[in-house]
Design brief:
The protein is globular, with a radius of gyration of 21 Å. Strands 3, 4, 6, 7, 9, 10, 12, 15, 16, 17 and 18 form an 11-stranded mixed beta sheet that branches. Strands 2-1-5-8-11-13-14 form a 7-stranded mixed beta sheet, with no helix packed on it. Helices cover 16% and strands 45% of the residues. The protein has 2 helices and 18 strands. With 284 residues, it is α/β, with parallel strands linked by helices. The chain has helices spanning 3-31, 268-283; strands at residues 38-47, 53-59, 64-69, 76-82, 92-99, 104-109, 113-115, 124-132, 137-141, 145-147, 152-161, 166-175, 184-193, 196-205, 224-231, 243-246, 249-253, 258-265.
C-alpha cells in the first residue's frame, strides 16, 4: 500500500468515525432521555457598509437550524428550520435576535412549530429574546405554533426596542390539530420601547388553564388566536384609528408609536387572512 492510499484510508476511517458519532448524537436527540433538549439559536444583524445588512452571527443549535435566504432590498432574511420534532415535554428552546442600528432583518420559519407530548415529564419552554437598536427594523413573521393534545408548553417573548426602532411582530397560535383537543399552552409577550413598557400580556389555554378560557369572554370556541404588533416612529405624528377589522378582529392603537391587531378565527388559514390583510393596509 503506497502513501497516498494510506492517507485515503485514514481519511475514510475518520469520516466513518464522525458518521458514527453523528449517529449517536442524533439517536440521543431522538430519544431525548428524561430531561429534554436544550438549544439556543442566535442571530445578529448589522449594516454592512455597502447599503445592505450583514449577519455576523447566525448560530444554529440542535433542533433550531437557521438558514439565510434571499432578502428584500437591503434587508437580510433568515428562516428558522426545525431539524427535529418539538418542543416536547422538558425541552427548553430559545431564539435570540439582535438588530443593530440601521440594519434591516426579516425572520420567518419554514413550517409550523408543533408542541408535542414527550418522554420527559414537565413543561416545555420556548423563549424568544429580541433587541432592536435605533433605526433598526425587524419583521418577525414565523408560521403558527400548534398546541397538540397532551403537550405542555410555556412561551415567553421579550422585545426591547430603542427609540426610533421599527417592528412588525406576528404571533399565531392554534389549539389542537384537526379533530383533537389542545394541549396546555401559556404565552406571554412583553415589549419595551425606550425602556418603558409598551405591551405586556399573557394568555393561557387548554387543560389546567384558568376557568373560562374557552368561554364567550375569551375565545368563544375559536381554535386559532393571533396578534400583529406594528411599531413605527411615524405613528407619533399620525396613528391609525381604532377599528373593527372583522367579526372577531380589531385594531387598537397603543400608548406609543404602535398599533396592535388582535384576532380570533376557527382555523389557521382564516386567521392568517385577517392578519395579512391588516398588515397590507398598514404597509400601504
Amino acid at each position: 500500500m503506497d502513501g497516498m492510499t494510506a492517507v485515503r484510508g485514514a481519511a475514510v476511517d475518520r469520516d466513518r468515525g464522525r458518521d458514527r458519532d453523528r449517529g449517536r448524537d442524533m439517536g440521543r436527540d431522538r430519544n431525548r432521555g428524561t430531561t429534554g433538549v436544550r438549544a439556543t439559536a442566535r442571530i445578529a444583524a448589522r449594516v454592512d457598509g455597502r447599503g445592505g445588512t450583514a449577519l455576523p452571527v447566525l448560530e444554529s443549535d440542535g433542533p433550531l437550524a437557521l438558514r439565510r435566504t434571499r432578502g428584500r432590498g437591503d434587508a437580510a432574511r433568515v428562516m428558522l428550520v426545525g431539524a427535529m420534532s418539538g418542543p416536547l415535554g422538558g425541552d427548553r428552546f430559545a431564539v435570540e435576535t439582535e438588530v443593530g442600528e440601521g440594519a434591516r432583518l426579516d425572520v420567518g420559519s419554514a413550517a409550523a412549530t408543533i408542541a408535542l407530548p414527550g418522554q420527559a415529564k414537565g413543561e416545555a419552554h420556548y423563549g424568544v429574546r429580541i433587541d432592536v437598536a435605533a433605526g433598526g427594523e425587524l419583521r418577525w413573521l414565523p408560521e403558527q405554533l400548534i398546541s397538540a393534545n397532551g403537550s405542555d408548553l410555556a412561551v415567553s417573548t421579550r422585545v426591547e426596542l430603542a427609540a426610533g426602532a421599527r417592528l412588525v411582530f406576528r404571533e399565531e397560535q392554534v389549539l389542537g390539530r384537526t379533530g383533537e383537543e389542545p394541549g396546555r399552552l401559556r404565552s406571554r409577550l412583553t415589549v419595551l420601547l425606550d425602556g418603558r413598557p409598551l405591551l405586556d400580556q399573557e394568555v393561557a389555554c387548554g387543560p389546567g388553564a384558568p376557568g373560562g378560557w374557552d368561554g364567550p369572554a375569551v375565545l368563544g370556541g375559536h381554535r386559532a388566536l393571533g396578534q400583529l404588533l406594528v411599531v413605527r416612529p411615524e405613528f407619533v405624528v399620525e396613528q391609525p384609528e381604532p377599528r373593527v377589522l372583522a367579526e372577531t378582529a380589531a385594531l387598537t392603537p397603543l400608548a406609543g408609536p404602535a398599533v396592535l391587531v388582535s384576532a380570533l378565527a376557527t382555523d389557521a388559514l382564516r386567521l392568517r387572512r385577517v392578519l395579512d390583510q391588516a398588515l397590507a393596509e398598514l404597509d400601504g
